[in-house]
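Let us begin with a simple case.
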Amino acid sequence: MKTMSTKKEVSVAIQGGFGAFHEIAAKQFFEHNYVKIVPCDTFSDLFEELQKKKPDCGIVAVENSVAGSLLQNHSFIHESNLPVVGEQYIRVVQNLLALPGESVSDIKEIHSHPVAIMQCHLFLNELRKNGVKIIDSVDTALSAKRIRDENLKGVGALASELAANMYNLEIIKAGVESNKRNYTRFIIIATNKKVIDILRLTPQTINKASLCFSLPHTKGKLSHVLSVLSIYDMNLTKIQSLPIVGKDWEYHFYTDLIFDDYKRYRQALDAIAPITENLKVIGEYRQGHRPDRD
């Protein structure tokens, strides 16, 4: 689906700095094209860029096999009203980086994104016992960049091998994630037709959809919706509820479906529309390859 006869340049907004895992995911997804990375400090900044439609698309982490769902990003995606057009899974390998010549015993502080810290809790817990401070930061790669920019001795960062190479840091301990089956799922959000043209999406290549809906306060409504989807042979791979702001005890349900027949999928949407409220198709796209199944 991604192979093109001629390369095109595509600008991709990411959360984090150059060398972040978002950059790795973006380059893997658009592997046959020139990728121009647009760094954003936070996910809020990323979606602000997308709303301005400056980059061609954005890539956003939505769940990790260890840390779980990034709940706020589901809300950002829903509120942006921009279509999801693809997904990318990557194996996340966290490394402890530091200035050349440093060793693990030299490290007094480790900085990284809270999710990365969560992914490496077993390794970090041992260092905490020896007095090492673990400090949250906005990004893995930006933590690495700060060490290089400020020549910070005794300071480490949890980040990618790409970040180590970019900022001329050494990997003083490789693969420090607690679970080696550490995968992150990213989704691609388009801001213009250029990305659709690159992907050449048609109903024949689409086999996954992300939906959002709410339900009336009636007993058994969610069960009813799930039963209808089952009748239409929809494979429900994810369901996530999030509170609706301003409406106590009411929820949006975010769901992912995989299907073999696009026409039957559309029939399933017609069937659940009368029994849901505010049904919205967030995106229809081709299911990404999951490396954990290799």
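The second case is a distinct protein. As before, the sequence precedes its structure tokens.
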Amino acid sequence: MDLLQTTVDLIRFRTETGNATEITKAAEYIKQKFNHTDVRVEIFQTTASPVIFLRNCDTLDFDVIVLGHIDVVPAADDMFEPIIKDGKMYGRGTLDMKSFAAVAMNSMEYVAQHNLPIKFGVILSTDEEKGSKSTESFMEAYPQINTKIVLDNDVGGDITKIVSKCKNPVFVKIIAHGKEAHGSTPWDGIDANELLLQTWQNIRKIYPYYAADLPQPVDKWFDTVHFAKIEGGQVSNIISNYAEALLDFRLTENSSVENLERNLQKCMVKGVEYKIVSSSTPVVMDENNQDILNYKRFAENIMGRQIEFEHIGGATDSRAFAVKGSTVIMHSGTGDGMHASGEYVEIESVKQIADIQIKFLEYLAKK
């Protein structure tokens, strides 16, 4: 498989989350790539969005699964025509994460062509950027699916780092109820916006505010929150009777949703309530895990340098397998500008991830 051409082809599909037409075209493209192989390809339809499921076996009990997604966040038209310059590929999805979806496809083709005695699968979701509801539906439809190892390339952005910890994303809605009145007589009403801001201030006493223009914490492994969305009021001269905010908490493995709820209860003022919209689980791997160390050894040999472990605040779909006891190896190529107009990936890092993945699969097949 031509790894770079496959990446370019995938990027040209405008698979912004929810764009069913382009997602369907991309899924069919992936399916056709394996038409002349023994690889089983299923485009699993869910009410949310499809999941592309590749495997070289009939079983649902795997040795290794590569997990990823092909949907992207919105971008200008020109970002769906990738540009290669100075060893980098620019475009939407170059880093997050179509180049590594191509790596997964490349690994599957290699396993099939060389008849490696390993039970290998690839799962590519199509709505990861908006919560991975398709992955949840897929896992519910196949509750018996399991794997010893998950290779997760949807993390970080630095090939010199293997991620050993990811935080738990918990989304919370804060809802404030007030009483309408004319804006000139605020004593006749109860301002829901004001109630929301008072609650916000209480939350900030527990979870401080951080920004690029403020002093940076040395150790960043702690619970954080940012206010993702705030709405309140309809017209300028009416006291708002309703306001709400969506909060994005990131919890370490040392915290819990129960503890978060206890803190939230302390922060609520009269007329304000909260609702847990979604929560998950942190992915925490033992850095002395033998499979991870073996993978790390292959990566260091191919790259010719030492690799370190790191912790990140982002979430990963591999948590669906981590809770089942799978070893999750979180390692991505190098790039920058994820979700931004200048998104790029270093091409050499994509090739290296592909080589590392194949060497590791060959090693596992010989065990």
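The chain has two domains: 3-166+282-366, 168-278. Residues 94-113 form the longest helix (20 residues).
Keep these points in mind for the review questions at the end of the chapter.
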